[in-house]
Design brief:
This protein is α+β, with helices and mostly antiparallel strands. The chain contains 9 helices and 6 strands. It has a domain of about 170 residues: Alpha-Beta Plaits (2-Layer Sandwich), CATH 3.30.70. Bound molecules: 2'-deoxyguanosine-5'-triphosphate (DGT) and magnesium ion (4 copies).
């Protein structure tokens, strides 16, 4: 078939192929969730329904899209890591990022009722921004995930003390902010413990550590049936430390060797 004279416009498309051998990370973040969480009456500082919905949506992304080996989420964000040898959509950044963002957003709406029930309707369509970052080494990728988990810890400790001072200590938000100005982690732990008898260490791991999703192999029940060759697997959620080496030693299949 002869090409139309319009065909040349295709050449204006930007080449956004991701450098090979790199892990491709897509991080999503809820757009203006400060307002979204207020309007939908999210519990402060953490809403378990919302955390469940974020995880459910991230699982949908892993199940529907190719080559995601691990995902990490906290607050209104989720990061998805494509394996470094992935050739999905020819590694085109815009294709990967938009598929992740739209699958996540539509899942967030689709599963809303499962988590929020009838009492809290979805008032308007939420959206998530996306960005792509490439990490060339296992160390860089682990440091990326460590960075997000450290962020989760710092914010959660602050928010926990802040809202405890307000909700249980009767302070105004301005007074709580003033009280916490210049305090270190140890000071915050001490306020929680000595004034409110709360041991931060025993707070739920999902809040302190965020959510890590990885693939878990299932024993193949129908191994003898010739048709079933693919070993079955499912997404498993963990709320553990990913900064230390233990997690990576326990799950050596997530990352590929650097060399
Ligand atoms: P952005 O990302 O620049 O469009 O703006 P925001 O407002 O989404 O800002 P961001 O992403 O830095 O902060 C997340 C907001 O979501 C922050 O206001 C706290 C809120 N948020 C996240 N999870 C919860 C929750 O479980 N409960 C409540 N009450 N708020 C939450
Ligand atoms: Mg932001
Ligand atoms: Mg946000
Ligand atoms: Mg955020
Ligand atoms: Mg099409």
């Amino acid at each position: 078939m002869a090409k139309s004279k319009f065909e040349y416009v295709r050449n204006f498309e930007t080449d956004d192929t991701c450098l090979r051998n790199c892990y491709i990370v897509v991080r999503l973040d809820g757009r203006n969730f400060h307002k979204f969480t207020e309007q939908h009456k999210f519990a402060k500082p953490n809403d378990n329904r919302a955390l469940g919905l974020m995880s459910r949506s991230a699982r949908s992304v892993m199940e529907e899209l190719e080559d995601i080996v691990i995902a990490y989420g906290q607050s209104d964000e989720f990061s998805f890591v494509f394996k470094r040898t992935s050739t999905w959509f020819k590694r085109r950044a815009s294709k990967l990022m938009t598929h992740v963002a739209s699958q996540f957003s539509s899942s967030y709406v689709f599963y809303w009722k499962e988590f929020f029930g009838e009492d809290q309707p979805l008032l308007y369509p939420p959206s998530f921004d996306g960005r792509v970052v490439l990490y060339p080494s296992n160390r860089n990728l682990k440091d990326y995930l460590s960075w997000r988990q450290a962020d989760c810890h710092v914010n959660n400790l602050y928010n926990t003390v802040f809202w405890t001072l307000v909700q249980k200590g009767g302070l105004t938000t301005a007074q709580a902010e003033e009280r916490l100005k210049g305090t270190l982690a140890a000071d915050k732990n001490e306020i929680l413990f000595s004034e409110f008898n709360i041991n931060y260490n025993t707070e739920p791991a999902v809040l302190k550590k965020g959510t890590t999703l990885i693939w878990e192999k299932l024993p193949n029940a129908e191994e003898k049936e010739v048709a079933v060759t693919r070993s079955r697997r499912r997404v498993q959620a963990h709320h553990c430390d990913v900064i230390g080496e233990q997690f990576w030693e326990e799950h050596p299949d997530i990352l590929e060797d650097d060399n």
